[in-house]
Amino acid sequence: MTLNHGHDPCNPETIQLAKMSGSFKSWVFGLNPSKVLHLVYKLMRSRSLKHVQTKTIKPLWFFQPLGTRDYNPKQMAIREKVFNTVVACFKRHGAETIDTPVFELKETLTGKYGEDSKLIYDLKDQGGELLSLRYDLTVPFARYLAMNKITNIKRYHIAKVYRRDNPSMTRGRYREFYQCDFDIAGQYDAMIPDAECLKIVHEILSELELGDFRIKVNDRRILDGMFAACGVPDDKFRTICSTVDKLDKMSWEDVKNEMVNEKGLSEQAADLIGEFVSMQGGRDLAERLLQNPRLSQNKLACSGLSDVKLLFSYLELFQVTDKVVFDLSLARGLDYYTGLIYEAVLTQAGLSGDTLNGAEDSVSVGSVAGGGRYDGLVGMFDPKGRKVPCVGVSFGIERIFTIMEQKAESSADKVRTTEVQVLVASAQKNLLEERLKLVTDLWKAGIKAEVMYKKNPKLLSQLQHCEESGIPLVAILGEQELKDGVVKLRVVATREEVDFSRADLIREIRRRTSEA
Amino acid sequence: MTLNHGHDPCNPETIQLAKMSGSFKSWVFGLNPSKVLHLVYKLMRSRSLKHVQTKTIKPLWFFQPLGTRDYNPKQMAIREKVFNTVVACFKRHGAETIDTPVFELKETLTGKYGEDSKLIYDLKDQGGELLSLRYDLTVPFARYLAMNKITNIKRYHIAKVYRRDNPSMTRGRYREFYQCDFDIAGQYDAMIPDAECLKIVHEILSELELGDFRIKVNDRRILDGMFAACGVPDDKFRTICSTVDKLDKMSWEDVKNEMVNEKGLSEQAADLIGEFVSMQGGRDLAERLLQNPRLSQNKLACSGLSDVKLLFSYLELFQVTDKVVFDLSLARGLDYYTGLIYEAVLTQAGLSGDTLNGAEDSVSVGSVAGGGRYDGLVGMFDPKGRKVPCVGVSFGIERIFTIMEQKAESSADKVRTTEVQVLVASAQKNLLEERLKLVTDLWKAGIKAEVMYKKNPKLLSQLQHCEESGIPLVAILGEQELKDGVVKLRVVATREEVDFSRADLIREIRRRTSEA
C-alpha cells in the first residue's frame, strides 16, 4: 500500500515544509504558491527523483523522515515540563513504571488493532525474526504481563509509538509520537480502577491548563447491546463500530451512508442507531436507558448501563463529574476494548493550527487522551488463555506539546534551555588556566557552571553569552583579583559586582541561585 | 545476511533464556543442559518452526525480540537513578538537550559506520521512504546541526539506539540499548571542549561508583601518521585501523595475523605497528614520541601529539589525570572520527557475568563510554560542505545498569518502585465511599496516596500491601473515627497510631514524609 501524500497543495504539512525552508521560501512564494508547492512536494517524495541534486531543496526535505520531527532545546524544555506534570500525577496515584522495546515480534501486534493494522511499520526481513514497531503501549504491556505472569500491577509507561498515518504537523499529528499510558491490571471490584483512570485524566488536563475539556464515556457492551437491539448482524458489530467511531470527524449523514452503502446495513437499523448515538447525558441517561424497551432486554447493554451508573457514583466522590459526559456515539477504533471506553477532547475552539486549517479544526478540536477496559488482551498472550482484567488511559501528548509551544510563543517569558548558574569569565588575556581551575572547583561543589572554550575571550562576549542564555551570575577573574586572592561576582540583571574569597564565592552563588 | 545465533550451547544468552523459563527450567536441567538448550534454542529461532505450539516454550521465547529486554519496575527505579546522575552532570556542564526520531532516512546513515554498517536495522519498504533505525546518536546529531544550520551547541541526548549485533544479555550487550551522549559543536580553541568531555566521563564514572576505571585516549591523526610511518598503504588505513581496534578483544598475534593474512599487510609493517601499539603513558609519552625519528617526520602525527600534550595540561587543571592513559592501541571502529578519540573501561575484574563467562570477561571487562572528535561529519550533510567541528562522548549505559542491578541485588536495602506515602484504609465494611472521599482530598493536597480497589478489603490485607510495597503510612477510617471526625494515622514501621482531624492529617503526613 502506498500512502498518498501531498495530494492537497494546501495541506498544512506542505505549507509547514515550505515555512521551514528559509532560502526556498522567497522563491516559492514569488510564484503561485499552491501550485509550486504541490509540484515540489510531489517531486521530493517520489522515490525515483530522490537523488536529484537541487541544492536549495536538499538540506531540508531530504533529511528527515516524513511525519517525524526533531525537538530543539526550547521544545525539549517545554516537553520536560509537560512530562513532569504527567509523571507527578501518575506517581501521586501510586504507579510504578516499566519499559518495553520499540519493536515487537510482528505476530504480537497481529489482530489487535482492527482496520488500523495497515498503519503498522514493519522492519525489513534481514534474516531472523519478523519485527514491527510498536503501534501503542497497550499491546506491549499485555505481552509483558502474560510473559511475566503478572496478575496485579498499576504502571505508567511513557514512550514513542509509530503509525504510518497521513501526518499533519500543524495539528500535532505525527508518525512518531509519544504516548503516556497509565494502566491498572488486576481482578478488582467493578468500576473503581476505571473511575481512577478518569480522575487522572481530569487532574492532568486541569493542571496543564489547556483550556476547557470534556471526557466522553461509553461502554463496548452498551454499543454491542445497542447494535443487537437495532438489528445489526453479529458479524457486523466491529465494522459498524468503526464507522460509528468516525462520528467525531464526519456528519451523521456520511456515517449512515458508509453503514448502508459500504457496509451493507439496512437503512432501518442505521436509523435506529442514529437515534441512540445522538444521546448524551450523565448518570440520569444511564438510568433512563435501563428502562428503554429495546436496550433493557439486552443483557450486555444492561450490565454496561449498570456499570456506567456505578461509575458516575464514584466520579462524584472523585469530584470530576463536571467534565464527564456519557455519550453513546463514542466507539473508539481499537478491537481490544471489552467494557468502559473514554476519550478526552479539548472543547475550546481556535487552539491550534486555525490560521492554516480553521474549517477542519472547528469540526473537532481533537482528542488528547483515550482509553478503556480490555479484559481479554492479556489472555491472548497466555498459552492457557488466563485472563488479566485491565483498564487504562493513554495521553496523546504530542498535541498537548503543540498547544504548550504556542502558549510559550505568545508568552513574554523566555524559555531557558540550560540551568547554568554562573559563567566563569576572565577580564584579561592569558587566564584560561585560572578559569579552568575555578570552574573545576565550582563543578566539584555541584554548581552548574561554564567557561567559554576560547583561550582569550573578550569580557564583552562573555557577558553577552550570559544575557543570551539567561545565566544569572558571572565569576570574573582578572590579574588584580588573582593578586588579591578573590573573585568578582557579577549579577547579570543588575550589573552589581562584589569581590568574594574562593570559600565565600561558592556559598554566595548557592545563596543567590536558591533565591531565584 | 543471516546472523548466526545459538551456535554455542554454552552461550550466556542461551543459558539466560533458560533461566528465564521457570516451568521449562526443571525439565531442561534434568537432561543434559547444553545439548538440549542448543537444540531448543535453534528450534525456536528457526523461522519455519515458529508456529509450533509447544506450550512450555511459547510464552517465553516467542514473545520478545532477540537481544531486547523489558525493564520491570525495579529495574526502572535503578535506571532512573543512573539517568539522574548522568543528566545532573550534563546539566552541571551547561548542556541543553534535543531529541530526534528513532528512524532516519536510510541514506543518512550510509557511509558513516565503516564495517559496522551491516548491523543497521532497516525498515520494510511499505511505500514511501527507505528508513533505518538509528545506529547511534552522533549521526542524527550531525544531521540535525546541518539541517538547522546550527554552528554552536552543547547538547546531551539520551535515547535508544539499535544494532543487529550478536547479543549477550549477561554482559549487558543488547540489540536495543540506551546511549547517553554529550557533544560540543563549534569552532573553538584546541582541546578545551575535548578536555571537558573527559572531565565529564571522570565525574560520571566516579559518581556512579562502578569501581576503578581507566580512560584511554589516542588521536586518529597519530594513528594515521603511525600507519604512514610504518609503511601501511594509504588505502589500507581504515581497514588496518579496524583491526587495531580489536586489540582489546584479541591477542596481538591474532591481530597481526588478520593484518598480514586477511588484509594483505607486509609482516614488517605489522611488526612496526606492533611496537607502537604496545606503548602507554601520559604527557611524557606524547613528548617522547614527538622526538621519535619515524613519527616526528609525519605532520599529522606531530599535530596529534602536540594536541595530546596540550590535552594533558588541561586535564591536570581539571584534576582527572589519575585515570587517563595515552594508549596507542586505542583505535575506535567508527569511520567519522578525525582527531582525539577515547574510551573508558572498568578495570575491576569480576564485575559482571563472570559466573557464566569468566574466561571472556577476564580479557576485557568492557567499555562503558567512548567518543572523540568528528570535524567532518556535519559537513557531509551540508549541501555546501560547511564543516562544524564537534567532539563528544557516549555512555553505553546498559552495561552500567547491569552492574547497578547486581549491586542492588547484593545490597540489603529494598528498592522501592513507587513513591506512595500513604494508603487510605478502612477498618470495617461499607466504607469505600469514605475512602474515595479521603483519597481525593489527599491527592488534591499533592500527597501520593492509594486505596485498594475492593469494596471491602480486610484491614490485614491493606496493612500487608503497605509492608510489601514500602508505604510508610496508613490513614485508617472506621465507624468510630467517622463519628469523631478524625482519621487514625498508623506508622507502618513502628505500628504507632494517632488520631488526627482532617486538617491536621495532611500536615502530619507532609511532616512525616519530608522527614523520611
Describe the structure concisely for a colleague.
Chain A has 516 residues and is α+β, with helices and mostly antiparallel strands. Chain A has helices spanning 12-20, 22-30, 33-45, 58-61, 73-92, 106-109, 138-147, 192-207, 220-229, 237-244, 252-262, 267-277, 283-290, 299-317, 354-363, 397-410, 432-444, 459-469, 479-484, 502-515, and strands spanning 96-97, 103-105, 131-133, 153-162, 176-185, 213-219, 280-281, 324-327, 340-346, 367-373, 390-396, 422-426, 449-451, 473-477, 486-491, 497-501. Chains A, B: L-histidine binds at residues 136-138, 163, 179, 183, 332, 336-337.
Characterise the protein shown here.
The structure is a homodimer of 516-residue chains. With 516 residues, chain A is of the alpha+beta class. Chain A is built from 20 helices and 16 strands. Chain A folds into four domains: 12-61, no CATH class; 67-212 and 389-414, Bira Bifunctional Protein, Domain 2 (BirA Bifunctional Protein, domain 2, 2-Layer Sandwich); 213-346, Bira Bifunctional Protein, Domain 2 (BirA Bifunctional Protein, domain 2, 2-Layer Sandwich); 422-515, Rossmann fold (3-Layer(aba) Sandwich). Chain A is 43% helix and 17% strand. The two termini of chain A are 56 Å apart. The model of chain A is unreliable at 1-42, 46-61 and 350-364 (pLDDT under 50). Chains A, B: Its EC number is 6.1.1.21.
Task: Give short descriptive properties of this protein.
homodimer, 516 residues, alpha+beta, BirA Bifunctional Protein, domain 2, 4 domains, nine-stranded mixed β-sheet, five-stranded mixed β-sheet, 20 helices, elongated, disordered N terminus
